[in-house]
Protein 1
Amino acid sequence: MLASLLEGQQSVLAPRGPVAAEIAQTAWVLFAGAAAIFAIVLALALFAGFARREWAGQLSEHVLIVGGGIVLPVVVLCVLLAWALLRFADLPLASASERLLAIRVTGEQWWWRVEYLDANGQRDFAAANEIRIPAGRPVELRLESADVLHSFWVPALAGKLDMIPGRTNRLRVRADAPGEFRGQCAEYCGGPHALMALHVIASDPEAFERWVAAQRAPGREPAVALHERGRALMLAHCAVCHTVRGTAAAGERGPDLTHFGSRRSIGAGLAPVNAGTIASWIASGQHLKPGNLMPEFAAFSGAELHALAAYLENLQ
Amino acid sequence: MHARADLPNPLPRPAGELEELKRLWNPPRGLRFVTVINNNYIGVMYVGTAFLFFVLAGILALVMRVQLAAPANDLVGPQLYNQLFTMHGTVMMFLFAVPAVEAMGVLLLPNMVGARDLPFPRLSAYAFWAYLIGGLVFFASLFAGLAPTGGWFMNPPLTTGTYSPGINEDFWLLGIGFIEISAIAGAIEMIVGVLRTRAPGMTLARMPVFAWSMLIFAVMIVFAFPAVILATALLELERAFGWPFFDPAKGGDPLLWQHLFWFFGHPEVYIIFLPAAGMVSMIVPAMTRTPLAGHRFVVLALVATGFLSFGLWVHHMFATGLPHVSLSFFQAASMAVAIPSGIQVFAWIATFAKGKVAVKTPTLFVFGFLGIFVLGGLTGVMVAVVPFDWQVHDTYFVVAHLHYVLIGGMVFPLFAAIYYWTPYSSRHALSERVGRWVFGLMFVGVNVAFFPMHVTGLAGMPRRVYTYAPELGWDGLNLASTIGAFMIAAGVALFLVDFARRFRMSAEANAGNVWDAGTLEWLPSGNYSSRSIPLVASREPLWDQPNLAHDVAAGGYFLPGSATGGRDTLITSPVHARPQWVLRMPMPGWPPLVGAWFTAAFFLLLTFKLVIPAAACGAVAIIAILRWAWSLDPPADVAPVSIGGGLRLPVYATGPRSQAWWAMVILMLVAASLYGCLLFSYLYLWLVSPAAWPSAAALPGIGYPLATAACLLASSAAVGYADRTLRRHGHCYPLAVALPLAVAAFAGSVAAQRRLDPGESSYGAIVHAFLVVDGWFVAVALVLALFALARQRAGLLDRTRRVTFDNARLFWHYTVAQTLAGLGMVHGFPRLVS
Amino acid sequence: MQTVLRMSAGAIVWAIHFGVIYGLTAAACARNFAPLVPWIVGISGAVAAAALLILMTLPGDPAFERWLTVGVAAAALIAVFWESIGAFVVPLCD
């Protein structure tokens, strides 16, 4: 049970990239060392306290205090410090001379704004709560914040890095192989901080390029009348905050919905995307994620919700 | 009556001497009992209050754990949960941990070093009452839904007015603000108490390790707390007036808060741990009936921990994107600080090996402490490694680490200490049988609750989350943690039942030295501490000096009764503990209590923005404090008194011999630490937002700072001249000249910046912060000077009786020097870098 | 008083060294002078180490206080040395 837990999507000890792998290795060495030292110290303490006095008296005070208390920690920690710093230096973190795919990720209360950047650092296309990367190639995440402190953390790939308003922190990550990883905001940001998760999906390079092309395309046109009704409702009620490229909706306050239907989750990791969850979110989002900044739209009738949800689900 | 060659005073003592001593030190009766100031009573009330907050914050944790026992649980929503975890952390750290160890110092220290009381008993009483009232009202904010929600660390921008409108965070800022002041008052007591009131012969080498730990604890408070006081003030200024210290849109930086807060926050945990380690170093020798092995190594370890802990703070900020080389300094220091802890652990092990361990409840808690704390210390070394911390920072791994070191390193020693020292304060000891159960439940409970959290954190669970998704598989571990939490609660509840049944407070009829321990607090005693003050010749006087207890109780040693007709105690030299003079001590009275209540009311009403009522309460507080201050500085023309051993000592001292001078110097160190943080904040904001800084041409003309400096220096000259006239002519009226000069200087500073808008940029904000701080110091200097002049006018200040003037003089010169430094920074630095 | 100062001197030297390396390094990184960092750390470390070694040889106090003075200076020396390693190993201002 423990092993399966530590193999999970969000586990520190199930690395899927070189940085996380280095750290996981370091972790095992630290655990082993700590366990050994703990066992020795505890054994000594119990022995000194409870063994027969003739035996306990053999322990030399000087050896214990100077040897065990000073020499041993100084030597062990000196070695540990040097080793840890050298490994730290070796982490493939630095923005190398190669031109990396740059993705700007902005922490918002309580979701992730994702913007893929072109070669000039301008926005190519936007997404939300999900990041897709080509497997085997490093990408640079430019971490910012629109409001309060957040922290970007996908344990399978790398350690966390805070998103601080007024600053851009750069995190270079690489996934070794295709896969899906889960992350969560790791700096308390008020309200439903607990429900601010994200998915990173690594695909092989051709699949990634296809995905990018699809993302650049405008939102899918309505296929049936239901979708048409949904689109009309969307334009009337959602355009202030949301963008659906290819329509008049160009709001920037909330997540970009152009290809919302194909995302892994709604509400930043809250639930899978289908007509039912979309309708629940629109009508009673405050119950699902109390305090989130999208108002509830309880005034929609059942039919309206049905149409709207169908349209949004269709935005693949 | 005959003199024994080995005793300072002849025996038997005259009739009535002991009765008079008892009468003088009796607590007030009836309702007036609340005006008690004696450390025995204040100490017990203080520990009790701290324990109350421990239980209250623990109950909050139980609610949190029930919410987290199952995934997607809906017992508690985020709004309430965020208040719960903020209050749990804040109450535990500020209202339980530091006050608890402070309280043990108040209770034990005077007796342990052979003094009759702390040097400033009314200050302790004031600090206690302010803490009790303020703490209870702060906790009650939960019931009104007004509790803060920003976490105990209160990071902006979340805690600024933009993202936290409402007064919840103000409760923290103003509520905890005066707890911080309480702590500083306690620190002053401890430093002066440990260094100036020890029994004759108790050199630093013979001083108990707990006294060393309280000394270092207090010095750390002096340098660490001002950082959080400043941070608190800056955040409140931003919330109330929009001064953008932490707003990046206007040149501020959220990281400035983190630097200031953690510069306090890291030493804070060692402030909590060191006294606990000191208590363990007293309990282990007693339980093994053998002196502490490696005593000087243990003292060195405490000192080294004290200063190294100031180099760790950025390890709370490893994930913020700071330069890697900067992080490496903190990784190194964080590892270095583990060494002194290791030294102490091995010293205790060596002591066990040398002696024979009596397996009583205190011993059980000491072994529990060793196991839990060592494990926590090892995970601490792990998180000191930067890349590893990048993964586990802000996860349940750190929650596990911090609870292991805090519960292991402080709560377990506290329980050991309560079981150990209850016979000192109470008629009956606590039950050994129940004690084993308490220990068992707590020890197993802590491990069941917190060990799984290491795994939970590695499995990806972040901190400060009110729920988690079912598919992540964290449920089993969370349920285990919840079960462990309830086991701990059961242990504490059992303890409380036993405590209520057995603890009956008594200083005179206490259960006695049931452990056959060797240090002075175990002498037969009353409210007056021991009957006479012993001459100490070793570290464990009760073991090494036969008949000491009998001879002390019979009055054979120093000061066997009151020497001055009132309460008094002996002042000795800092290093060698040579008797210097006799301090007259105050009787109980209302002013500290009234002052404390109304100080607390002032801060709390301000939180509700009820400015007029707040001002009214503040005025009452100030009146009470002035009334109290007026009774300070007793007459100087009293003849020296005999304390025994042929020693006739003065009853009044001025200059560095005076305890009031020491208090003022310590206060100046606190002020310097705060001002240092302010200077740091200025330079930091410049480093981060140089664009907000003016060119030399845009600064106020150089005439302003020069004029201000001239006024300040002239005012110091006036004070110096007043010192001369006091020495020569017995009055200090020239001091009055300094007052308008100080006002003019400050007016000049304000006028210089009149065109600068504090709300427009971080530059404007920080320059105005200097004005606020400088203004505050000038105001206090004026009050002290006016007070001295009033004393002069009332005939209570003269050539010999001059402590009030000397304190005003010290503070004045300090304020001038500090303000000049500020002027140099504000007017000089931008010109330098232009 | 002098005794107390000597006993604290090791801590004071360590604190000044730490403030210097942290402050100057932060300034250097903020203003893009990364190559200065090893020099800052190396020179401050050498000065601090020298001061501490001198402190350890000062005479004058009774045995316990002198032992503490030397002990505090030794602890500070280890810390100064360890805090200097990073500047020569780790990538600097990244």
Protein 2
Amino acid sequence: MSYIGSTPITQSFISGTDYFNGTGAQTAFTLSRTVASVNDIQAVVNNVVQVPNDAYTISGTTITFTSAPSAGTQNVYVRYLSTTTQAITPSQGTVSWNTLNSDVQQDLGISFKNRIINGAMSFWQRGTSFTNPTVGGGNFYTADRWGVNRASDVTGATVSQSTDVPSGFQYSLKLQRTAGNTSTAGLFLFNSNETVNTLGLAGQSVTLSFWVKTGANYSGGAISVVANSGTGTDQRVYAYTGSTSFINTTQAITSTWTRYSFTGAVSSSATEVGFYISWTPAGTAGADDSIYVTGVQLEVGTQATTFTTAGGSYGAEFDLCRRYFERFSPSVNYQNYALGQAFSSTSAFGSFFFYPKRAAVTVAYPAASNFLIYDNTGTGRVATSINAGTLGTNAFEWSGSVASGLTAGNASGLTSNNTLNSYVNISAEL
Amino acid sequence: MYKLIKNRFGDVDTIQRLADNAFIPFAPANTDYANFKTAILEDKAQLQDADGNTMTAEQAKDFIKELP
């Protein structure tokens, strides 16, 4: 029989013998064990070993002799020879997911089972704490792929990376109402799937699961869990065209990490799928009026299976994140970002390459003075302006100005100044 | 507030979002670009030309209509 799993290293076999009294008329006797084959036993009558198949046959727990053994006391006995004394074949459709142990579940995990990128809150390229994120501003995204706001974009929310996690995770996302805040506007945590990653979900039953707990001074009640589908392309979940909820419920939560799951049927016309978790605070916020979330998974099927990251490994998950956003931050001062050429005494340009994005990118820099433009003499000059143009999906053209000192036609380069706050944000987020 | 940006060949091919110094392409799949168009059409933001002069709302909307 074929089976799933490794070849057993150790086996246990308990020897045994069944004794019967012959009657001279009885041909069938009932064994104490189920036997798969005539070769798995040795049948003896009056101390004469019987020939399998010729002298007897086996069916389950019944041995049938072709001739009735003569009368006698325990003159018929059957010895068990094989470790394979039973053959158990599960009926079709009777082995459920929960019947398999977690190791097997993990082994059977299909690629991209979890449609939520950065569901384990592992990557925080934009930073590890955020104040007053809004839908309308440029600060909607916090942890990679996770957008946050308060209703009507009111202030009084913070998001931070937390090491308060359930077993098996490194980070959680803490969504907090700022201590002392009195607004009762809801706090929302959004995740919007790109349309190409939604393919295969339309018309399917899907299950959303995550771990969540409350902060010490949580003022809200049950959280809201809403999963929507839309018929547009690459929109944010709160702005879907043809928005339809396939999960819309509430869930009471506690201060203990608990995994919850929710199942719904995605519309057959869905081209985008996303969800949000929200909670509504009350009164004045205490020191830790918050929820913590991690281990978010959205998968096809009617039950939550073992959590896996969308990418399957740390590096692959990071690559998935970088399809949407990438931050170049210097690890040391004066780090070189891109090469180019001066085209006057005060200006230079060059190419800046990056990980391929889902769409043409938005590029943002901090103050120009955080950068230097070098020439071929090795002299760095503080930039007075930095621009980005010809914005593509894997490169853009940087250009910058300095007060003086460059030589047209000479090689040039863009570097960070003597500050680590000289990042380049490259975004193609939804 | 947004501003049009010329490339080194003198062509306008980028929008600058002045609030956070972000450079945005004329690309329909770019969410910031979509938000820019919506903001101008709904009179929620102003647009400067490449020389820094603020366009009237009508001028900005006429410009938007010519974009992809």
